Structures are given as structure tokens and as C-alpha cells.
Amino acid sequence: MARLNAANLMVAQEIIARYPVPRSALIPLLHLAQEQDGYVTEDAMAHIAELVDVEPAEVMGTCSFYEMLKRAPVGDYMVNICNGISCHLLGSSDLIHHAEATLGVRPGGTTDDGKITLEAVECIAACTEAPCLQVNYRYRNRVTAEAFDELVAELRAGTAGVAAHGNLAKVRQHIGDDRRAGVSPPDGQGEPAWMARNPSDNGAGS
Amino acid sequence: MNAPAPAPADLRIITSRFDVEDGHTLAGYEHTGGYAGLRRALEMAPADVHGEVRTASLLGRGGAGFPAGVKWGFCPPGVWPRYLVVNGDESEPGTYKDRLLMERDPHQLIEGCLIACYALGLSQCFLYVRGEMAHAQERLAAALNEAYEAGYVGRNVLGAEDFSVDITLHWGAGAYIVGEETALIESLEGNRGMPRLKPPYFPASIGLYGKPTIVNNVETLANLPWIISNGGEAFAAMGAESSTGTRVFAVSGHVATPGVFEVPFGTTTFRDIIFDPRYAGGMRLGRTLKTFIPGGASAPWFFEEHLDLPLEKTTVDQAGSMLGSGAIVVMDDTTDVVRACHNVVRFFARESCGKCTPCREGTSWLEKILSRILAGQGRSQDLDLLMDVCDNISPGINWPPRQTTICPLGPSAVSPIASALERFRGEFEAYLPEAEETAVAVTTSAGAMS
Q1: Do A131 and A92 form a contact (C-beta atoms < 8 A)?
Q2: Which of residues 176-205 of A touch B (CB under 8 A)?
């Protein structure tokens, strides 16, 4: 299943057009595939390989390096509890133990209802808000055991206001055709025109 | 969200819009002086813009602290195109400032990028944001869309016939190592994020697609609008002679009021930022300081006797650590340093990319040895073994560290062990089974075997 659908294919082509070398779009395209299906399917990797003109194995090679890209289904919600040093000092181990007990899974595991995948992750840059976590990469700060249980209840009820796994930014970059400067390919192009500027020549001064 | 510290208003350069409600929008940015630096830059010759940054003595804010104006000068003449890659892959444990700069003042970063592109003839900019930072990605996407529409970015910037540059928003997918600038470039080329062999030491000579590439940290670039608006000399007049301007520090751990604070660079001391009520407000619950990490997980630890050192690059380097990425992690007297040490070492073991043997094997050995010590199964020689493995990763275990690896990740795992073992050896020994019991156990098993 699951090559990129027609709508996502258009998004993919817009992403690719922003890079001078198509292969550079690989990670954003893998995110797009994950947004569509909740994880990165083999068909999607093959499709992406066609789009950026590399072998599927190369797409797999890149995909398998990065922790966020999942090559098997995960829960609708990734609950990533930070276990970085700042969170560690403020009780992240206790929070992780509490989460294990509440959800009945170890880090890396998914609840039986397929809703929640628990992970213990490295520092997520909210160190002054320890202990913290992310649900599908949205922050929850200074999380207590009670707050964690409330979050789980909201996630199960679908009232947490968090988009399904795979969705990241709610806004996509869009460059209008009339505003586009154009990509800068590695071959070709001499010195950019503005480098010849010398404002003292035209009286603009500096 | 935590409010940044109420530092004196005149000292806030790059966090000045953090408490402006719509500071992240184009309207809010323009109302507060936004894009004045870009307008000023476009009235100057590109070389003069570069000159202002040199005069400012702006040190890179990513970790290594290399002077930005000097780094900019490493582009080989006559080789085109040149690229700008923005390092927004903030992942060093304890570090928490680039995310806020991207979320709360995205236009300031965009303006900084445009100024850098103009100064150096960089014909395309790639803004690489950490994958896990979804909110920062959407704030930057929204800001870029606005800035393109308004004519600040893209074709004919501010109507200039000769100056056009695209900024491409890019985002990662979870890998600490990608913060290393050559790994960042590999990742941006669509590859596994593994650092490149050096030399060349600077991507300014050979970088993205083999072309000259400037890789700058988010905070570094965020300073450019102010520098160009107010002049390099005004920037250099702030802070200390060798560490100019301001810096943003995140103070976390066992402090009363953890937070992200912009302070004068080089003159504020560790004691100020940890204990002053305007900043982190001292130890929580009236406890006492045991140790602190002065510059992110890679930095050797500091102690009580280092509190009066200024937050100044050279001083901290000479005292045996680094300001690194502006992350101060404070531990009080309740801290189990063996567990804290294990936590940091586990991070490096997990994030090692696997390219260099001393790091790939060494960091995971260190983690395993510490794990068994914590499990009460340590051996009497384990503490020496830890140091021996450290010595294989970073010969001599000195500061700055020698490397047997392509990048500094492996040697970074040595820092917490060397610091903690030297200072708190007794706490490690307390985890080891009693020497006598070990001896008995050995005798018994030997007896059973014979």
C-alpha cells in the first residue's frame, strides 16, 4: 500500500522544487509519507526514490538513520518522555516508571488499543520545564503523574487537540512563482550580481 | 511557557521580542524595528557588512565559539555558488535557546540570514530546523510565507534588482549528531547524518554539494540585524573584550527559577546567573550546590570554586571546560552523581553515529560499565577501566580533548566521567560490592570449580 496520494504528490513536487539537487528533499518527503500513513511504508520509499531519482535502498539507508522516521506502524500518539540530564535531575525516571505502569508497556511499546506508543527520548530542548514530554512532537511541560494520567485519558478520548502521528508543522512553506528567486545549482552561476555593488559609486554611502 | 528573565531592557538584543505578543508575526516584527538592519545592509557594500561583523567580534553561538566574521572569511575567492546553512538542530542536552529564538522571533532569524547572504554572496539559504520542533517549523514557515509575500525574501529583495535569494525551510528527523556541521550538510544532501572526514576543517571551503558553505547557528545569525543597525563597534562595546555582545543561557536543574536568560557576554558570572533572583534564583528548597555543567552535556563539570568565573569564553576554556551551547545544568547535594554521569554517557552512546570505532565502541562500553556499577555488579577494577576506555577515546584525557575520532562526540562522553570520577570517586566506590565479599565470591566459585 501507500504510495504518495495525488494531493501529497503535488506537495512533494513543490518541496523538491525548492532544492537545487532533488535528493536533498529526501527527509522532508519521508516526513510527508509518514504524515500520510502514520509511518513510512516500503511503497512510499520506492515512490520517493522515483521522485528524487535514487535507488529505493538509498532511501531506506537515509530513513533508517533517523529516529523520528518509523518503518512499522506505531500508535496514533507517540508519547516521548524526555530523559535528558535536566529532566533526569527532576524525576524523569519516576515519570517513565509511572507511564509504564499506567500504559502497561515499556518504552518502544504500543498499547493494545493501538492508541499510544511510549518512548523515553533524549533531550527535547525544554530543559527549564522539566520533566517534560512531547505528544506527536507537541510539548507538555512540568509533567506530574496526575497530569500524565489526564493526558492519557484525553488522548484516548480524542480530546487532547493533537494531530495524528506523522503531522508536524501545521503551516507549510509556500513560495509564489512571482516571488521565487530560483534555486542555486552547484554547477553554473558566477559571482552574484550584488557582490559588484559599491554604494560609494552611486552616492548611497555606507 | 516560562517568561525570560527581567534582565535590564538595554541588555536584551535578541530576546527583546520574547514578551511582545505578536513579535513572531511580520506586523509585530515591523512595529518593533524589524528589517531595519536589512535595509541598512543594502545601503552598504557587501564587504562593508562583513566588516561590521568582524568589528563586532561576534563569536559563534553554537558550541565551538569560533568568531563568525573570521569563519565567513574562509570562503575561497572566485568559487561560486556559495550557500548558507542555518544550524537549527539544537539537541545538546540542557540547551534551550535556539528553539525559543525560532518560535518567538522567526523574522529576526530570517533577517539575519538575508544579511549574511548579502554580505558574502550566498545565493541560497537552507534553514535546517530540528525535526522534533514542530512549533518552530510552523512559526518559521508562516514567517517565511509572510516575508516572501512582503518582498523581504525571494526575487528582488526589497525591490533591489540585483539581490535575490531563496530561503528553503528544511527539517530533520531526529539525530543529535546532525548538529555537527559536516553531518548537517550530509543530512541536507539527503544522506545518513554522519560527519565528514577532515580536512577540510571548514565547510566554507568545501561544503554543501562540494561548494563553499557557511554554516551558522541560529543565535549567531539572530544577532546580525542588531549589529548592522547599531554598528559592530556598539556590539563590541558590550560584554567583555574577547566575548562581545550578549549571550542567551538556559539554566536548568535544581535551581529555584530555571529559565532562559540573555545576559552581557563575558562579564556576568556563574554565581550571578545561578543565584541572582533576576535569573535562576539560587538552589531550590535551600539546598546546596554540588556541581554544575557550564556549557551543555559535552562540557566537563564545574564546582563551587568556579562560581565566580565570568561567562567568558577564554576564562572558561582555561579553567578546563567550555561555555559550549549556553546550557548550565545545576545539581544540588541530593544528586546521585553516578546516575547523573550515567545519564549523560548514555546519551552519547545512543547518539554515536557509528562511523569511528573509538566512539562507537567506547561510548557503549562506558555506558555498560556504568550500568553494571549502578546495578551493584561493578568490579573493583571498573573505575580504572572507565578511565582506560576514556583514554582510548581521547588520549591523555585533557582539555581541550584530543580526538581519535572525526568529530567531538566521542570525547564529549569522556567529560562527565573524568569530572565526576576525579571529584566524587568515593560515590562510585560506594556502588561497588564490598571488596571482601567479592574476594569470598571468587574463592567460592574457584572452590566449586575444583
Answers
A1: yes
A2: 176, 178-186, 189-200, 204-205
Rounded Cα–Cα distance for residues B401 and B104 (Å): 36
Chain B interface mutation, best of A34, A63, A173, highest count of B Cβ atoms under 10 Å = A173
pLDDT digits (tens, 9 = 90+) for A38-69: 999 999 999 999 999 999 999 999 999 999 99
Neighbours of B222 (CB within 10 A): 27
Cβ distance of B123 and A192 shorter than 8 Å: yes
How does pLDDT run across B206-258, given as a tens digit for each residue?
Answer: 999 999 999 999 999 999 999 999 999 999 999 998 899 999 999 999 999 99
- CA dist A97 and B42 (Å) reads 56
Residue, of A105 and B434, whose pLDDT is higher: A105
Q: What pLDDT, in 10s, does the model give residues A107-156?
A: 999 999 999 999 999 999 999 999 999 999 999 999 999 999 999 999 99
Q: For residue B65, give the nearest of B57, B76, B54 by alpha carbon.
A: B57
Give yes or no for residue B315 having a pLDDT over 80. yes
Of B92, B96, B168, the CB nearest to A18: B168
Q: Which of residues 51-70 of A touch B (CB under 8 A)?
A: 52, 54, 61-62, 65-69
Cα–Cα distance measured from residue A19 to residue B118, given in angstroms and rounded to the nearest whole number: 20
User: For testing the chain A interface, which of B343, B371, B417 should be mutated: the one with the most A CBs within 10 Å?
Assistant: B343
Q: Take residue B287 and report the three cell numbers written for it.
A: 539546598
A85-117: pLDDT as tens digits: 999 999 999 999 999 999 999 999 999 999 999
DSSP state of B86: E
Contacts of B368 (CB under 8 A, 6+ apart): none
Across the interface, whether the CB atoms of A171 and B145 are under 8 A apart is answered yes
Q: Please tell me the distance from the alpha carbon of residue B301 to that of residue B287, in angstroms, as a whole number.
A: 19
CA B25, B31, B33, B35 torsion: positive or negative?
positive
Between A and B, how many CB-CB pairs are < 8 A?
Answer: 246
pLDDT of residue A198: 83
How many CA atoms does the CB half-sphere of B395 hold within 13 Å? 3
Let me know if B317 is exposed, middle or buried by CB neighbors in 10 A (0-12, 13-18, 19+).
middle
| Residue B130 near residue B88 (C-beta atoms within 8 A) | yes
Distance CA B12, CA A140 (A): 28
CA dist B280 and B317 (Å) reads 23
Q: Is the pTM of this model over 0.80?
A: yes
Contacts of B97 (CB under 8 A, 6+ apart): B90, B219, B248, B249, B250, B260, B326
> Grid coordinates standing for B240?
567583555
Dihedral sign of CA atoms B236, B43, B151, A182 in order: negative
Residues B420, B423, B428, B430, Cα dihedral to 10°: -150
Each residue's pLDDT tens digit, B122-135 = 999 999 999 999 99
Cell of B96: 534551550
B233-241, Cβ contacts within 8 angstroms, sequence gap of 24 or more = B233/B55, B233/B56, B235/B55, B235/B56, B235/B57, B235/B58, B236/B55, B236/B56, B236/B57, B238/B11, B238/B264, B238/B265, B239/B264, B239/B265, B239/B266, B239/B267, B240/B265, B240/B266, B240/B267, B240/B310, B240/B312, B241/B266
Q: Is the ipTM of this complex over 0.85?
A: yes
Residues of A in contact with B154 (CB under 8 A): 175, 179-181
Q: What is the pLDDT of residue B2?
A: 45
Whole-number pLDDT of residue A188: 75
> Residue B289 has which C-alpha cell?
550546590
